Structures are given as structure tokens and as C-alpha cells.
Amino acid sequence: QVQLVESGGGSVQAGGSLKLSCAAYGYAMSSYCMGWFRQAPGKEREGVATIDSTGTTRYSDSVKGRFTISQDNDKNSLYLQMNSLKPEDTAMYYCAADLSFFNPTWCSPSPPRYKYWGQGTQVTVSS
Questions:
Q1: 125 — alpha (psi -120 to 50), left (phi > 0) or beta?
Q2: Which among 26, 28, 24, 31 is positioned nearest to 94, based on CA atoms?
Q3: Please, how many CA atoms are within 13 Å of residue 120, restricted to the half-sphere of its CB?
Q4: Burial environment of residue 80 by CB neighbours within 10 A (0 to 12, 13 to 18, 19 or more)
Q5: How far apart are CA 30 and CA 65, in angstroms?
Q6: Helix, strand, coil: what percent of the chain each, to 5?
Q7: What is the pLDDT of residue 124?
Q8: Which residues lie below 8 Å from residue 67, measured CB to CB, with a gap of 6+?
């Protein structure tokens, strides 16, 4: 059974940092596309960052240079290091898995492609 559990969210002032974690159960994270997504009230889910089976990462323009996605294969965990946080980053953050292809070399940033989701962790950035 596939399960994803996020943690690490919280409240921080603008310019601060947070590191989110996502523990995966029931499959090998390193063999599939993994992504971080976020959703603010009244807005659609937005792709933030993805990582494929080779470790190649991709980022949305809004977070590029500030956020870093990574994974620890031994722990089967995914991380999102967020630096220089802005109030616009305030949202519920989710990790998700796309198990459609084994050992993919590139991943979609589109939320519908991801069938497995964590419960989310709230990030609030104040000015």
C-alpha cells in the first residue's frame, strides 16, 4: 500500500527558511517521479519541484533559485529545502508520486499525473 506523509511545515517570517520532509511507504521512491506541490486557498494546485529516477530536478519559475528538492534513497524520503521565503509562498504543501512509469528520466509538473498524495503540511510566511 502506497502512503506518503509530509512534515516540517510551520510559520516563518519573510526571508526565513523551512525544510519539508516526505516519508514514503509501500514502494521505492527512487524508481518513480516524485514532486512537491502547493495550494493556497481559492487557487489551483501548483507544481513546485520534481525529481526523476536519475536525481534530475526541475523547478517552477517562482521558486527557482530559492527551493531545492532532494531525496534520500536509504530512508525512502523526499525533502524540500525552502530559503528566502516570501509571503506568496504561503500554502499547503504536498508531496506526490507518479507511478505510471518505472525509472523515468523526466517528470511532469502537472498535478493530474500524480495519483498518490500526502496529507499536506501548512507553510505560512508573514511579512
A1: beta
A2: 24
A3: 12
A4: buried
A5: 23
A6: 5, 50, 45
A7: 98
A8: 36, 48, 49, 59, 80, 81, 82, 83
Task: Tell me the per-residue pLDDT of 44-73, one tens digit each, with 9 for 90 and over.
Answer: 999 999 999 999 999 999 999 999 999 999
Residue 113: what are its φ and ψ, rounded to 5°? -75, -15
| pLDDT one-digit tens code per residue, 1-14 | 999 999 999 999 99
Q: Which three cell numbers stand for residue 36?
A: 512537491
Dihedral sign, CA of 95, 99, 100, 103?
positive
- Given a contact cutoff of 8 angstroms between Cβ atoms, the answer to whether 16 and 72 are in contact is no
Give residue for cell 521558486. 63
